[in-house]
Design a protein that fits this description.
Layout lengths: L12 H12 L3 E8 L2 E6 L39 E3 L18 E3 L12 E6 L5 E4 H4 L5 E8 L16 H5 L2 E10 H8 L7 E6 L6 E5 H6 L2 E6 L2 E2 L9 E3 L12 E7 L14 E2 L5 E2 L8 E6 L10 E10 L5 E7 L7 E2 L1 E3 L8 E9 L4 E9 L8 H8 L12 E4 L5 E4 L3
Length: 420
């Protein structure tokens, strides 16, 4: 296996590709200069001025990237107001998900909130109830944190077997952004936490009035009341003008359009933490408040949307994450888990954040069963589906973080399969 940068694609391949482009593309014409004695071509777009900087006061992607979009699954979309769409993981690089490509989950549609009229109330078991305007909140000391955010139903359609035709749909309920705001502990200090308070209730301003109970210990640790995402104000579908960021915990507790926080002695047992977002076990009982998103990973290239078109050198690429902390290692298997080798982790490797991994690989047309296995800094190892089912059964929807398998076929196409 040749892993050097110069030998990765083989000598002459780049020059051959350039010659083919010159010969085949009608918009490229001959010009002076040369490459290995051949004329260096000048494309049409080099011969004319482009639009000025005032043509697009808010930038947008190139028209040639118009297929890099969020997508939904029709049978998962009850209505436009109660819907979910998926991040195109196979089209992304690095660890920051562009704001316009972050997956969305809505229970009552996206409210149109005027920021000057929006209020955040903190009350209940506090020394003094407080009401904050957006202007009030931005005057507090700010923090910026990069964290992943994942729906606990990510992958949950496949407890009983593989069925999603692509990484966007099997794992696309996750994204990773830089969030800026004020620490919740700062606001709670202002209100004063009363003795005996152990939980808080967070409520959103959408039509569903989403509510979730959160332990006070977590709130005082690392929770952020965020107003910005990736350097600009949060997108409406992501909670504008205010949302909770609860690092490493399931997305449903990270309440969007945040309007109210109430402190109390015990959890409120509302709909989204009783009949929903609980884990049905084999004995008929349900696990409750399983907040942490355990270590997970997936290979994003190759994948069903990114098949192999040529034999030879490739790079296996993917992402890993853990709600427990940093990713410490990712192993990759080419034979369905019989043998493993460690991949390279791409920097930066951050706490409760997406981490990129990669492994050079030479494919000669043989069938391959690709898997990745994440290990986090606590020593937690991503389980197999058999290990999960042994404890959880097959009736769950949430917190499925098992090792995923792509079958690479002889023709380079890639299928979603499940190995027990």
């Amino acid at each position: 296996m040749n892993t050097g940068r110069r030998g990765f694609l083989g000598r002459g391949l780049a020059a051959g590709g350039a010659a083919a482009l010159v010969a085949q593309h009608p918009k490229i014409a001959a010009a002076s200069g040369g490459l290995d004695g051949k004329p260096l071509e000048v494309p049409d777009w080099t011969k004319m001025l482009g639009p000025g900087v005032t043509a697009a006061p808010y930038g947008s992607p190139s028209e040639f990237e118009k297929n890099v979009v969020r997508r939904n699954v029709p049978w998962l979309t009850v209505s436009e107001q109660a819907s979910i769409n998926f991040t195109p993981l196979h089209e992304l690089d690095g660890i920051i998900t562009p704001s316009g490509l972050c997956f969305e989950r809505h229970h009552g549609g996206v409210p149109e909130i005027e920021p000057d009229l929006h209020r955040l109330v903190i009350h209940g078991m506090v020394r003094q109830p407080l009401v904050f305007t957006m202007s009030d909140l931005v005057r507090f000391p700010s923090v910026s944190r990069i964290h992943f955010l994942e729906c606990p139903a990510n992958g949950g359609m496949e407890w009983k077997g593989a069925q999603m035709a692509g990484v966007q749909f099997s794992h696309g309920m996750v994204h990773c952004c830089e969030w800026t705001g004020v620490r919740l502990s700062t606001l709670l200090d202002e209100a004063g936490v009363a003795q005996g308070a152990k939980w808080l209730l967070a409520e959103g301003a959408d039509a569903a009035a989403m509510t979730r109970s959160i332990p006070l210990d977590k709130a005082l640790d690392d929770v952020v009341v965020a107003y910005s995402q990736n350097g600009e104000r949060i997108r409406p579908e992501q909670g504008y003008p205010l949302r909770l960021i609860v690092p490493g915990w399931e997305g449903n507790v990270q309440v969007k359009w945040l309007r109210r926080i109430k402190l109390g002695e015990r959890p409120w047992q509302h709909r989204e933490e009783t009949s929903k977002y609980t884990d049905l076990m084999p004995d008929g009982k349900a696990r409750q408040f399983t907040f942490v998103q355990e270590a997970n990973s997936v290979i994003t290239a190759p994948c069903p949307e990114k098949p192999l078109k040529v034999k030879g050198s490739h790079e296996i690429r993917g992402i890993a994450w853990s709600g427990r902390g940093k990713i410490s290692r990712v192993d990759v298997s080419l034979d369905g888990g019989a043998n493993w080798q460690s991949a390279e982790l791409q920097t930066p490797v951050l706490d409760k954040c997406l981490t990129r991994f990669r492994l050079p690989w030479r494919w000669q047309g043989e069938p391959v069963f690709l898997q990745s296995r994440a290990i986090d800094e606590t020593g937690y190892v991503q389980p197999t589906i058999e290990q999960l089912r042994r404890v959880r059964g097959v009736n769950s929807v949430y917190h499925k973080n098992s090792i995923h398998t792509w079958r690479v076929n002889k023709d380079g196409s890639v299928d979603n399969v499940q190995i027990l």
